[in-house]
Amino acid sequence: MKSTMEILTKLQENSQKNHDEIFTRLYRYLLRPDIYFIAYQHLYSNKGAGTKGVNDDTADGFSEQYVTAIIEALRTGSYEPKPVRRTYIQKKNGKLRPLGLPVFADKLVQEAIRMILEAIYEPIFSIYSHGFRPGRSCHTALAMIKHEFTGAKWFIEGDIKGCFDNIDHSTLIGVLNRKIKDARFLNLIRMFLKSGYMEDWDFHETYSGCPQGGIISPILANIYLNEVDRYITQLKKEFDHGYNPRNFTEEYNTIRHKRDALHEKIKEAEGTMREQLIAQHKQLTKQLFRTPAKACTDKRLKYVRYADDFLIAVNGTREECEEIKAKLTDFVRDTLKMELSQEKTLITHSNTPARFLGFDVRVRRDSSVKHSGKRKMRTMNNKVELNIPLKDKVETYLLSHSIAKRDGKRLIPIHRPILLNRTDLEIVMIYNAELRGLCNYYAIASNFNKLVYFGYLMEYSCLKTLANKHRSRISKVRYEYRDGTGAWGVPYETKKGKRRMMFAKYSDCKGKDLTEKVPDLAYRYSHNTTSFEERLKAKVCEVCGCTDSDSYEIHHVNKVKNLKGKADWEKVMLAKRRKTIVVCHKCHMRIHHGTKTE
């Protein structure tokens, strides 16, 4: 019998070959045990795997019997998703974003549904969509902007108001129903959408939206917003007109033809006449480089979307941009039952930066001439520039994390009291992680070198923190941790000997290609079995070694580093360097309660 992963690979290949194919009888794949072992492998390492929902069900205690109970409930139709536990996380603007925490059994079923939906929809998603997709990221979206938006005149910045919270359930099911003809499968998705949430132990029904925190929420949002991608693609077909890369202005053509005629005369002239013609040729060349070349009579539309944020580049008039925005507003309101945020959906000239994914995007107007091979060209003119919003992003980060404080118009580094109880190695590791995280994200920025001051503030804040911890001075700390090359780092011991944790340099992040390669999706589904399935079916307790237990279960911990190494099971996990071990029921009860049960 074929594994479920092989079947999903086949579904994906069919979807790739025929974008209009209809899929039926998908519910039966949820009744196969192997899909839940794959789902567990995807979920167990997540930080939220040990987080409780409305009951005590977590990744701990997973077993074959656990899977059998889920499948039996699905087969008999008695499976009902539990309400999610609602909590809130703070946004940068101070507002609170609701976050739903499902129970682990629901996470497993949702992950199985997600794998099936991904196999069907991933091949037909728009190339302009980059959010919550395998092999795509913010950097792939920004790379597309840099390549595609060359020469744009206008930007339309788009944002859908409360996207995840306002997805219309009946519209979403209708979109799914166009591709999937399986009533039980669609009904299960509808049950997850309608499962409600618990807040302060009060139950609340859900009438719209996908809960943020739900495993299937990102792909359902992408399926929903793919309708926007399709609509804008249709607008693009209707709007694009008259593109010709050789469509130059009349003035530019006149000067160019004069220069070409002079070039022919120079070949035949001699002496003083030749020198005069060469001087005229140089003068015309200078004039040519000062003259706008592109006629701008063509109309083009480009588009990139990441989750519910999108950016449209338009070659045309502002009135045409207003018309496009109005059409899009009507489509989102009438078809998707949602609303464009009018405060964030802005029309700006491309010479004015548009904010997208934390970058300032603009199109340069630069007539400076540079050598490109053997020719002189205006290499930077009409090219897209991605800049770091230094004041809004970098300065805000430094101030909010107490790394620096404002002294007049400049920032100065300060020590961080919150880190004083950490070891020297941990302090340097924290600073390195923060520095590399921000610099890696902005590695593709045109003004990346402006982060030199950020690197200085991070380094001296770290030195001040170490000096404050040891009641010393920066110069003494630096002298103590010097490496002999002008740099410094904290030494530490490993099994292979002494090593040194050097303070990171911002410049090491420059030029890194951080755009993820789109993987072969069939390869992602090629593994037929998982280590969890093999380990559970081996029926051997990894603590006591017994082979005659009625039940073998997965014991799961959130972090291996938190284990003390005193109990026998902790020693096993530390030795294996795993967050999970397979144990018999008796050992599992002893781990949790300290006593054996018969």
From TrEMBL:
This is Group II intron reverse transcriptase/maturase. One of its GO terms (molecular function) is RNA-directed DNA polymerase activity. CDD domains: RT_G2_intron. The keyword Transferase applies. It comes from the Bacteria. GO terms for biological process: mRNA processing. Pfam families: AI2M-like_HNH, Intron_maturas2, RVT_1. The lineage of its organism: Bacteria, Bacillati, Bacillota, Clostridia, Eubacteriales. Residues 70-361 form the Reverse transcriptase domain. PROSITE patterns: RT_POL. The keyword Ligase does not apply. InterPro entries: AI2M-like_HNH, DNA/RNA_pol_sf, Domain_X, GrpII_Intron_Splice-Mob/Def, RT_dom. Keywords: Nucleotidyltransferase, RNA-directed DNA polymerase, Transferase.
